[in-house]
Structure formats: structure tokens, C-alpha cells
Write a structure and sequence with these properties.
Radius of gyration: 20 Å
Number of helices: 2
Largest sheet: none
Order of helices and strands: HH
Strand content: under 5%
Oligomer: single chain
Helix content: over 70%
Number of strands: 0
Distance between the termini: 24 Å
Amino acid sequence: MKISSIFTIAVSVASILFSLFALWVTLVWKVRRTRKAFEKQLIRQGMAKRDAKRLSAQYSKMKNEIMSTFKGSLFRNRSEKT
């Protein structure tokens, strides 16, 4: 193998890993902002703070389900190839 092809592969892998990390950070940040805004809106409408937090926890639950599905698809596809 040429050194240039190894370098190209390394750059491509680094780019993919950076994109996945950026996607994860964005998802976490957006869920946090959405959850807090939803809680504030419910509290402003007169709901108890504890109940608002319990309802807004569904956003975090959905995020966790999305992440586990994504991770599962990565590992499932890898194991099917071998």
C-alpha cells in the first residue's frame, strides 16, 4: 500500500468520526434545549414543576432510544458481515 492511500483512509475515517461526534453533540444539545423550553411552557401554563419535569423526561427517553437504535444498527451490520 502506498503511504498516500493510507493517509487518505485515515483522513476519511477521522472525518466520519468527527461527523458522528458532531451529530451526537447536536442531538444532546437540541434535546436539552427542547426539554427546558417545554418545561418552562408547561410551568407557565400552570402545571406543577414536578409534573412538567416528568413529562419533559420523555424527550430524553426518545433521545436514548434513538441512540440505542443507531448503535444497534452499527453493531448488527458489522456482525452480519462476518
